[in-house]
Write a structure and sequence with these properties.
This protein is mostly beta strands. It folds into 6 domains: 56 residues, no CATH class; 119 residues, Immunoglobulin-like; 97 residues, Immunoglobulin-like (Sandwich); 90 residues, Immunoglobulin-like, CATH 2.60.40.1220; 192 residues, Immunoglobulin-like, CATH 2.60.40.680; 87 residues, Immunoglobulin-like. Helix content is 5%, strand content 46%. Strands 6, 8, 9, 10, 11, 13, 14 and 15 form an 8-stranded antiparallel beta sheet that branches. The longest helix has 17 residues. It is rod-shaped. The N terminus is likely disordered.
Length: 681
């Protein structure tokens, strides 16, 4: 006799020996009880209930032959109700009404979505219950697992027989009926992984850069689990490598965004957000990864903080520069190019720190050149970049005070350097064309240096601004005008002087220079178009200068104003005096002349004009037609210039003279002239 133990928890063993139970509509076995049935006996009933659980329901037939036919009375599962994911095993059980013996691998076809899957026989031979195992595969989906039909059990080349070797009945309870798998168990098969959404860096639209070293936010669109079990939660992490969570391990959340805090992020490093979704069955989606956010604690692209030397300054010719550029943050990847208007320059680049770039020009600089430094792809650690152009002007040869004008101040500096043998102000030899020349100093001051300064001084006069007036400083200039000459006293403490006359070239000319002694440096420039006459002197030989004489010419008979701009420098290069002086130039005739009286004929008064090129003793006498002296109009010393006198037709005694022809004559030490006039009555 075989024992069928219906419930393992039973505490009381209740045995009922019977050979048959015929015609019973139902059998109820209480908790803790058991029924022992002999080998040749059967339990015949419409239903069998154990401890309130219906374990059999069928036709009440009891006319089986000895040994009977084994059949399936229930389909269930060893698994608990719930969700099952990809890779989970589900054990489906088939309970027979008597023990069965299994050979081969029978299969149970299950309804698992678009493609049905089979559960393969696993165990239970020589017992009432056979177990079939099914492993959930990707794509499987069944909200309530069931077999496909009552014929879902296939022998698959094997057999299921009772202990008497009779083939068992393998029809299953109809799907959905009381003893069917789906009626007894609620097994949710979810073999579908959630479809990933889009992950954005930041709290809204995707960002590429963040300035925070401690906080970083992510947000993402909802993952889609289709018609399967639904999203249980999201797992969000952060890493330096896409898809990895090596910076912040995964955290489970239910929201569609997350803000990481208390991080230790590194400037210049790119971090990637990674999000996975787990459905209710436990399927984990693939990782959705952001496109990365780079930490840039300096916000925005780099900028230039300092440039040395400043682009507003000029670059010295004798000292090829190193240009240092300092940035607001560490930079990388930049390239540098240098061009100029008048030369080809060699240079090297060094980056002594991540914040600084040094550009060293090794070529000699060209005078009055413009240098263009082009820096491109100045990139910070976050990848933001800018381009920057820097322009420099090179110094003007001989413009030692860098005022864009080669003048007395520069001449003074040149003389001081000459006397001190300071070779930093050498001006020769040089190559090129004034003013764009390149120096090749030979280590000595000589004629080449003097010529270099002279050429640049003349160039500056020709191309400079006319009439740069100077405020009066120091001792006032001493000068006087004698005839057509202006005499300027040389300051006894000066070794360098410059005089500039500014005038209307239509009315005045100053075109000659006289009176300097010694083998000293003398420069002269006369521009008759602009009205500028410039003169510079340098006492290099230590010989004294005499007074300087300048020859003037005034057009017309009226005096004209001329501006004199002057500068004096001491032997140590200090400004002694400077200023602007307005000089009233007399109109000085070039020759002696006696002009025709006006009016002529006249009555009773006429005017006589005469010209004196220099101061003279003048004798002007009127004679009658017989040559007798009528009167003396002038007999005295007169200054140079244009003069006039009036005769009222009276004799020396003051009596009126008669009508007729008269003569007037002028006499000087160097000039005699007679003209005729007529009196009408």
């Amino acid at each position: 006799m075989k024992r069928l133990n219906m419930i393992k928890k039973y505490l009381i063993s209740f045995s009922l020996a019977i050979t048959s139970m015929m015609g019973q509509s139902s059998i109820v076995i209480p908790a803790g009880a058991s029924i022992s049935v002999p080998d040749e006996a059967y339990i015949c009933a419409g239903t069998i209930t154990v401890n309130g659980e219906l374990i059999y329901s069928g036709t009440n037939v009891c006319n089986y032959e000895a040994g009977g036919i084994a059949s399936i009375v229930k389909a269930s599962s060893l698994n608990e109700d719930g969700f099952y994911k990809i890779g989970d095993q589900i054990a489906v059980t088939l309970t027979f009404n008597r023990n069965v013996v299994v050979t081969g691998t029978p299969q149970l076809t299950l309804e698992t979505g678009s493609v049905d899957k089979v559960a393969n026989y696993s165990s239970g031979s020589e017992s009432l219950m056979l177990t079939f195992n099914y492993i959930v595969e990707e794509g499987d989906l069944s909200p309530d697992l069931k077999y496909v039909s009552s014929s879902a059990l296939s022998l698959n080349g094997g057999s299921i027989k009772d202990q008497n070797n009779n083939d068992s009945e393998i029809l299953l309870p109809e799907p959905g009926s009381v003893n069917s798998l789906s009626a007894i168990k609620e097994l949710y098969v979810d073999g579908i992984m959630p479809t990933i959404g889009t992950v954005n860096d930041g709290i809204g639209d995707d960002i590429m850069y963040s300035s925070s070293l401690t906080d970083l936010s992510l947000n993402w669109t909802a993952f889609d689990d289709g018609n399967s079990s639904g999203i249980k939660h999201y797992s969000v992490g952060l890493g330096r490598t896409p898809g990895e969570a090596d910076t912040q391990s995964f955290i489970d959340i239910s929201a569609l965004n997350y803000n990481f805090t208390d991080l230790t992020l590194v400037n210049g490093v790119t971090y990637y957000g990674v999000v996975k979704a787990e459905d209710k069955a436990g399927n984990m989606s693939l990782a959705a990864v952001s496109n990365g956010v780079t930490i840039d604690e300096f916000e925005g692209p780099p900028s230039i903080v300092t440039i040395f030397p400043d682009p507003s300054s000029t670059l010295e010719l004798n000292d090829p520069p190193t240009i240092d550029v300092t940035f607001s943050e560490p930079v990388q990847g930049l390239s540098v190019g240098i061009n100029s208007d008048n030369s080809i320059l060699n240079f090297t680049i060094d980056q002594p720190s991540s914040y600084k770039v040094s550009i060293s020009i090794s070529s000699a600089l060209t005078s009055r050149d413009k240098i263009y430094i082009e820096m491109s792809n100045i990139q910070d650690l976050a990848g933001l970049s800018i381009d920057k152009s820097i322009e420099y002007n090179t110094a003007t040869l001989a413009d030692f005070n860098q005022d864009n004008n080669v003048d007395a101040g520069d001449l003074s500096a040149f003389v001081v350097a000459w006397n001190a043998n300071d070779l930093m102000k050498e001006l020769g030899p040089s190559t090129g064309t004034i003013p764009n020349v390149v120096l090749s100093p030979d280590g000595q001051y000589d004629l080449e240096d003097v010529m270099g300064f002279s050429r640049m001084w003349h160039w500056s006069r020709k191309n400079g601004v006319n009439g740069k007036m100077l405020a009066n400083t120091g001792k006032e200039i001493a000068y006087n005008q004698i005839g057509s000459s202006i005499f300027i006293d040389w300051d006894k403490d000066a070794v360098v002087a410059q005089f500039e006359f500014i005038y209307d070239p239509q009315l005045v000319s100053i075109d000659q220079i006289k009176g300097n002694n010694g083998e000293n440096m003398e420069l002269a420039f006369i521009d008759t178009v602009r009205g500028e006459s410039s003169f510079a002197y340098a006492n290099i030989s230590n010989e004294n200068f005499t007074n300087n004489q300048f020859i003037t010419k005034v057009k017309g008979k009226d005096s004209k104003v001329v501006d004199l701009i002057y500068q004096f420098y001491t032997e140590d290069g200090q400004l002694l005096s400077q200023g602007t002086e307005s000089i009233m130039l007399k109109a000085i005739p070039e020759h002696f002349s006696l002009h025709q009286n006006y009016p002529n004929p006249f009555n009773p008064v006429t005017t006589i004009n005469y010209d004196l090129p220099f101061q003279s003793m003048v004798n002007l006498v009127v004679y009658d037609i017989m040559g007798r002296k009528v009167t003396t109009l002038i007999n005295e010393q007169r200054s140079e210039g244009y003069h006039s006198t009036v005769w009222n037709a009276r004799n020396q005694q003051g009596a009126p003279v008669s009508a007729g022809i008269y003569f007037y004559q002028i006499q000087t030490s160097e000039y005699v002239k007679t003209r005729k006039m007529v009196i009408l009555k």
